[in-house]
Protein backbone atom coordinates (compact mmCIF):
# COMPACT_ATOMS: atom_id res chain seq x y z
CA UNK A 1 0.00 0.00 0.00
CA UNK A 2 2.83 2.38 0.81
CA UNK A 3 6.50 2.67 -0.10
CA UNK A 4 9.19 5.33 -0.20
CA UNK A 5 7.61 7.04 -3.21
CA UNK A 6 4.07 6.85 -1.81
CA UNK A 7 4.62 7.03 1.97
CA UNK A 8 0.94 7.50 2.80
CA UNK A 9 -0.56 5.58 -0.11
CA UNK A 10 -1.79 7.00 -3.42
CA UNK A 11 -5.52 7.67 -3.05
CA UNK A 12 -6.09 9.82 0.04
CA UNK A 13 -9.32 11.50 1.05
CA UNK A 14 -9.36 14.81 2.89
CA UNK A 15 -12.21 13.56 5.04
CA UNK A 16 -14.96 15.81 6.33
CA UNK A 17 -15.48 15.80 10.09
CA UNK A 18 -19.03 14.58 10.75
CA UNK A 19 -21.04 16.48 13.34
CA UNK A 20 -24.39 15.68 14.91
CA UNK A 21 -27.44 17.83 14.29
CA UNK A 22 -26.53 19.90 17.33
CA UNK A 23 -22.96 20.44 16.12
CA UNK A 24 -21.17 17.95 18.39
CA UNK A 25 -18.44 15.67 17.08
CA UNK A 26 -20.07 12.57 15.57
CA UNK A 27 -17.55 9.81 16.20
CA UNK A 28 -19.89 7.04 15.09
CA UNK A 29 -20.49 8.90 11.83
CA UNK A 30 -16.75 9.38 11.40
CA UNK A 31 -16.17 5.65 11.81
CA UNK A 32 -18.87 4.80 9.26
CA UNK A 33 -17.64 7.35 6.75
CA UNK A 34 -14.03 6.20 7.14
CA UNK A 35 -14.97 2.58 6.48
CA UNK A 36 -17.01 3.59 3.42
CA UNK A 37 -14.10 5.57 2.02
CA UNK A 38 -11.60 2.77 2.53
CA UNK A 39 -14.03 0.21 1.10
CA UNK A 40 -14.44 2.57 -1.86
CA UNK A 41 -10.74 2.67 -2.70
CA UNK A 42 -9.03 5.16 -0.39
CA UNK A 43 -5.75 3.88 1.01
CA UNK A 44 -5.27 6.93 3.21
CA UNK A 45 -7.45 9.34 5.20
CA UNK A 46 -6.41 12.87 6.08
CA UNK A 47 -8.21 14.14 9.16
CA UNK A 48 -8.57 17.68 10.51
CA UNK A 49 -7.40 19.42 7.38
CA UNK A 50 -9.16 22.25 5.56
CA UNK A 51 -12.05 19.99 4.58
CA UNK A 52 -12.09 18.59 8.11
CA UNK A 53 -12.81 22.05 9.59
CA UNK A 54 -9.69 21.99 11.75
CA UNK A 55 -9.95 25.67 12.81
CA UNK A 56 -13.21 24.94 14.64
CA UNK A 57 -12.44 21.62 16.33
CA UNK A 58 -10.77 21.44 19.72
CA UNK A 59 -7.51 19.64 20.48
CA UNK A 60 -9.48 16.99 22.35
CA UNK A 61 -11.84 16.49 19.43
CA UNK A 62 -8.91 16.13 17.02
CA UNK A 63 -7.37 13.39 19.16
CA UNK A 64 -10.71 11.61 19.60
CA UNK A 65 -11.27 11.69 15.84
CA UNK A 66 -7.88 10.11 15.15
CA UNK A 67 -8.50 7.34 17.67
CA UNK A 68 -11.99 6.61 16.33
CA UNK A 69 -10.91 6.43 12.69
CA UNK A 70 -7.82 4.38 13.55
CA UNK A 71 -10.07 1.92 15.37
CA UNK A 72 -12.51 1.78 12.45
CA UNK A 73 -10.03 1.19 9.62
CA UNK A 74 -7.27 -0.61 11.50
CA UNK A 75 -4.30 -1.16 9.21
CA UNK A 76 -6.30 -0.98 5.98
CA UNK A 77 -5.41 2.67 5.40
CA UNK A 78 -2.98 5.27 6.63
CA UNK A 79 -4.31 7.95 8.95
CA UNK A 80 -2.72 11.38 8.53
CA UNK A 81 -3.63 14.02 11.08
CA UNK A 82 -3.77 17.71 10.32
CA UNK A 83 -1.86 19.49 13.08
CA UNK A 84 -0.88 22.80 11.51
CA UNK A 85 -1.70 26.08 13.25
CA UNK A 86 -0.30 29.63 13.25
CA UNK A 87 1.62 28.82 16.47
CA UNK A 88 4.70 26.59 16.41
CA UNK A 89 4.32 25.53 20.05
CA UNK A 90 0.70 24.55 19.54
CA UNK A 91 1.52 22.68 16.33
CA UNK A 92 4.24 20.73 18.16
CA UNK A 93 1.73 19.81 20.88
CA UNK A 94 -0.79 18.62 18.29
CA UNK A 95 1.83 16.54 16.48
CA UNK A 96 2.73 14.75 19.69
CA UNK A 97 -0.93 14.21 20.52
CA UNK A 98 -1.57 12.82 17.03
CA UNK A 99 1.25 10.31 17.47
CA UNK A 100 -0.18 9.24 20.82
CA UNK A 101 -3.69 8.88 19.33
CA UNK A 102 -2.48 6.49 16.62
CA UNK A 103 -1.83 8.61 13.52
CA UNK A 104 0.60 7.37 10.87
CA UNK A 105 1.72 10.85 9.86
CA UNK A 106 0.95 14.54 10.21
CA UNK A 107 -0.13 17.22 7.75
CA UNK A 108 1.43 20.58 8.58
CA UNK A 109 0.13 23.71 6.89
CA UNK A 110 2.11 26.95 6.67
CA UNK A 111 1.40 29.21 9.65
CA UNK A 112 -1.37 31.52 8.54
CA UNK A 113 -2.11 35.18 9.26
CA UNK A 114 1.38 36.04 10.61
CA UNK A 115 2.96 35.30 7.20
CA UNK A 116 6.48 34.33 8.37
CA UNK A 117 9.38 34.80 5.95
CA UNK A 118 10.94 31.72 4.39
CA UNK A 119 13.68 31.23 6.99
CA UNK A 120 11.11 31.33 9.81
CA UNK A 121 8.80 29.05 7.84
CA UNK A 122 11.59 26.54 7.36
CA UNK A 123 12.43 26.63 11.08
CA UNK A 124 8.76 26.08 11.95
CA UNK A 125 8.53 22.93 9.83
CA UNK A 126 11.81 21.57 11.17
CA UNK A 127 10.69 22.13 14.76
CA UNK A 128 7.47 20.23 14.11
CA UNK A 129 9.27 17.40 12.32
CA UNK A 130 11.69 17.09 15.25
CA UNK A 131 8.85 16.96 17.80
CA UNK A 132 7.59 13.43 17.10
CA UNK A 133 8.54 10.26 15.31
CA UNK A 134 5.85 10.67 12.66
CA UNK A 135 6.56 11.41 9.00
CA UNK A 136 5.44 14.86 7.85
CA UNK A 137 3.44 15.99 4.86
CA UNK A 138 3.85 19.72 4.24
CA UNK A 139 0.73 21.57 3.09
CA UNK A 140 1.35 24.36 0.59
CA UNK A 141 -1.86 26.34 0.13
CA UNK A 142 -0.92 30.02 -0.15
CA UNK A 143 -4.41 31.06 -1.20
CA UNK A 144 -5.56 30.33 2.35
CA UNK A 145 -2.43 30.91 4.42
CA UNK A 146 -1.05 33.98 2.66
CA UNK A 147 2.41 32.37 2.56
CA UNK A 148 3.92 30.26 -0.17
CA UNK A 149 6.41 27.50 0.64
CA UNK A 150 8.90 28.50 -2.01
CA UNK A 151 10.48 25.71 -4.11
CA UNK A 152 13.96 26.35 -2.73
CA UNK A 153 12.55 26.08 0.80
CA UNK A 154 10.94 22.75 -0.06
CA UNK A 155 14.20 21.51 -1.54
CA UNK A 156 16.06 22.32 1.68
CA UNK A 157 13.32 20.81 3.85
CA UNK A 158 13.49 17.58 1.84
CA UNK A 159 16.83 16.93 3.55
CA UNK A 160 15.02 16.33 6.85
CA UNK A 161 14.52 12.58 7.34
CA UNK A 162 10.92 12.92 8.52
CA UNK A 163 9.72 15.48 5.96
CA UNK A 164 8.63 13.12 3.22
CA UNK A 165 5.70 14.59 1.31
CA UNK A 166 3.87 17.69 0.09
CA UNK A 167 0.18 18.34 -0.40
CA UNK A 168 0.31 20.79 -3.28
CA UNK A 169 -2.35 23.47 -3.58
CA UNK A 170 0.03 26.09 -4.96
CA UNK A 171 -1.38 26.02 -8.51
CA UNK A 172 2.23 26.25 -9.69
CA UNK A 173 2.70 23.16 -11.81
CA UNK A 174 6.17 24.17 -12.94
CA UNK A 175 7.39 24.57 -9.36
CA UNK A 176 5.96 21.16 -8.45
CA UNK A 177 7.93 19.54 -11.27
CA UNK A 178 11.06 21.40 -10.25
CA UNK A 179 10.84 20.04 -6.70
CA UNK A 180 9.98 16.56 -7.96
CA UNK A 181 13.09 16.59 -10.14
CA UNK A 182 15.42 17.66 -7.34
CA UNK A 183 14.10 15.81 -4.28
CA UNK A 184 12.54 12.54 -3.21
CA UNK A 185 9.49 14.29 -1.74
CA UNK A 186 6.21 12.54 -2.50
CA UNK A 187 3.94 15.09 -4.17
CA UNK A 188 0.19 14.76 -3.63
CA UNK A 189 -2.26 16.82 -5.67
CA UNK A 190 -4.39 18.89 -3.32
CA UNK A 191 -6.60 20.23 -6.12
CA UNK A 192 -8.72 17.52 -7.73
CA UNK A 193 -8.40 18.94 -11.24
CA UNK A 194 -4.65 18.20 -10.99
CA UNK A 195 -4.95 14.59 -9.80
CA UNK A 196 -4.06 12.90 -13.07
CA UNK A 197 -1.76 15.61 -14.40
CA UNK A 198 0.51 15.61 -11.34
CA UNK A 199 0.48 11.81 -11.18
CA UNK A 200 1.56 11.64 -14.82
CA UNK A 201 4.75 13.63 -14.12
CA UNK A 202 5.75 11.64 -11.06
CA UNK A 203 3.36 12.67 -8.31
CA UNK A 204 2.50 10.20 -5.57
CA UNK A 205 -1.29 10.57 -5.83
CA UNK A 206 -3.81 12.93 -4.33
CA UNK A 207 -5.36 14.24 -1.14
CA UNK A 208 -8.89 14.80 -2.36
CA UNK A 209 -11.98 16.55 -1.03
CA UNK A 210 -14.05 15.15 -3.90
CA UNK A 211 -13.13 11.61 -2.79
CA UNK A 212 -15.61 12.05 0.06
CA UNK A 213 -18.35 11.37 -2.51
CA UNK A 214 -16.67 9.49 -5.42
CA UNK A 215 -13.71 7.61 -3.91
CA UNK A 216 -13.90 4.74 -6.38
CA UNK A 217 -13.87 6.83 -9.54
CA UNK A 218 -10.89 8.90 -8.45
CA UNK A 219 -8.93 5.81 -7.42
CA UNK A 220 -9.73 4.20 -10.78
CA UNK A 221 -8.07 7.11 -12.60
CA UNK A 222 -4.75 6.22 -10.98
CA UNK A 223 -5.26 2.48 -11.44
CA UNK A 224 -5.96 2.89 -15.17
CA UNK A 225 -2.92 5.08 -15.61
CA UNK A 226 -0.73 2.53 -13.82
CA UNK A 227 -2.16 -0.20 -16.05
CA UNK A 228 -1.09 1.77 -19.13
CA UNK A 229 -4.62 2.70 -20.21
CA UNK A 230 -3.90 6.41 -20.17
CA UNK A 231 -6.79 7.25 -22.50
CA UNK A 232 -9.33 5.65 -20.20
CA UNK A 233 -7.71 7.38 -17.22
CA UNK A 234 -8.10 10.73 -18.95
CA UNK A 235 -11.72 9.99 -19.83
CA UNK A 236 -12.56 9.08 -16.24
CA UNK A 237 -10.85 12.23 -14.96
CA UNK A 238 -12.76 14.33 -17.50
CA UNK A 239 -16.07 12.76 -16.52
CA UNK A 240 -15.54 13.98 -12.97
CA UNK A 241 -14.70 17.54 -14.02
CA UNK A 242 -18.20 19.00 -13.66
CA UNK A 243 -18.61 17.65 -10.14
CA UNK A 244 -15.08 18.73 -9.20
CA UNK A 245 -15.86 22.26 -10.37
CA UNK A 246 -19.16 22.44 -8.50
CA UNK A 247 -17.64 21.09 -5.31
CA UNK A 248 -14.43 23.09 -5.35
CA UNK A 249 -14.90 26.22 -7.47
CA UNK A 250 -18.46 27.35 -6.89
CA UNK A 251 -17.64 30.16 -4.48
CA UNK A 252 -18.09 28.01 -1.36
CA UNK A 253 -15.50 26.12 0.70
CA UNK A 254 -15.20 22.49 -0.29
CA UNK A 255 -16.30 21.29 3.14
CA UNK A 256 -19.60 23.17 2.70
CA UNK A 257 -20.36 21.65 -0.68
CA UNK A 258 -19.06 18.19 0.22
CA UNK A 259 -21.18 18.06 3.37
CA UNK A 260 -24.20 19.31 1.46
CA UNK A 261 -23.88 16.50 -1.07
CA UNK A 262 -23.06 13.84 1.53
CA UNK A 263 -26.12 14.81 3.54
CA UNK A 264 -28.42 14.52 0.55
CA UNK A 265 -26.95 11.08 -0.14
CA UNK A 266 -27.72 10.01 3.43
CA UNK A 267 -24.03 9.66 4.33
CA UNK A 268 -22.36 10.86 7.55
CA UNK A 269 -21.59 14.58 7.45
CA UNK A 270 -23.99 16.79 9.38
CA UNK A 271 -23.73 20.57 9.60
CA UNK A 272 -20.69 22.79 9.25
CA UNK A 273 -19.53 24.86 12.19
CA UNK A 274 -19.71 28.64 12.26
CA UNK A 275 -18.48 30.85 10.77
CA UNK A 276 -19.23 28.54 7.83
CA UNK A 277 -22.86 28.22 6.80
CA UNK A 278 -24.58 25.32 5.02
CA UNK A 279 -25.05 25.27 1.28
CA UNK A 280 -28.46 26.49 0.11
CA UNK A 281 -31.03 24.21 -1.47
CA UNK A 282 -30.27 25.26 -5.05
CA UNK A 283 -26.58 24.51 -4.57
CA UNK A 284 -27.28 21.11 -3.04
CA UNK A 285 -29.75 20.26 -5.80
CA UNK A 286 -27.17 21.20 -8.41
CA UNK A 287 -24.54 19.02 -6.73
CA UNK A 288 -26.90 16.08 -6.54
CA UNK A 289 -27.87 16.45 -10.20
CA UNK A 290 -24.21 16.56 -11.24
CA UNK A 291 -23.48 13.50 -9.10
CA UNK A 292 -26.34 11.60 -10.75
CA UNK A 293 -25.14 12.61 -14.22
CA UNK A 294 -21.68 11.34 -13.36
CA UNK A 295 -23.06 7.99 -12.26
CA UNK A 296 -25.09 7.73 -15.43
CA UNK A 297 -22.10 8.56 -17.66
CA UNK A 298 -19.63 6.19 -16.05
CA UNK A 299 -18.67 3.46 -18.48
CA UNK A 300 -19.89 -0.06 -17.71
CA UNK A 301 -17.46 -1.92 -15.51
CA UNK A 302 -15.90 1.25 -14.15
CA UNK A 303 -16.25 2.26 -10.50
CA UNK A 304 -19.42 4.28 -9.95
CA UNK A 305 -18.66 6.07 -6.70
Automatic annotation (TrEMBL):
It catalyses: L-aspartate 4-semialdehyde + pyruvate = (2S,4S)-4-hydroxy-2,3,4,5-tetrahydrodipicolinate + H2O + H(+). Keywords: Amino-acid biosynthesis, Cytoplasm, Diaminopimelate biosynthesis, Lyase, Lysine biosynthesis, Schiff base. The record marks 50, 113 as: Part of a proton relay during catalysis. InterPro entries: Aldolase_TIM, DapA, DapA-like, Schiff_base-form_aldolases_AS, Schiff_base-form_aldolases_CS. One of its GO terms (cellular component) is cytosol. Pyruvate binds at residues 51, 207. CDD domains: DHDPS. The active site is at 139 (proton donor/acceptor), 167 (schiff-base intermediate with substrate). Its EC number is 4.3.3.7. It is an enzyme of class 4 (lyase). One of its GO terms (biological process) is diaminopimelate biosynthetic process. It is found in: Cytoplasm. Pathway: Amino-acid biosynthesis; L-lysine biosynthesis via DAP pathway; (S)-tetrahydrodipicolinate from L-aspartate: step 3/4. Homotetramer; dimer of dimers. Catalyzes the condensation of (S)-aspartate-beta-semialdehyde [(S)-ASA] and pyruvate to 4-hydroxy-tetrahydrodipicolinate (HTPA). Belongs to the DapA family. PANTHER family: 4-HYDROXY-2-OXOGLUTARATE ALDOLASE, MITOCHONDRIAL, DIHYDRODIPICOLINATE SYNTHASE. This is 4-hydroxy-tetrahydrodipicolinate synthase. It comes from Streptomyces antibioticus.
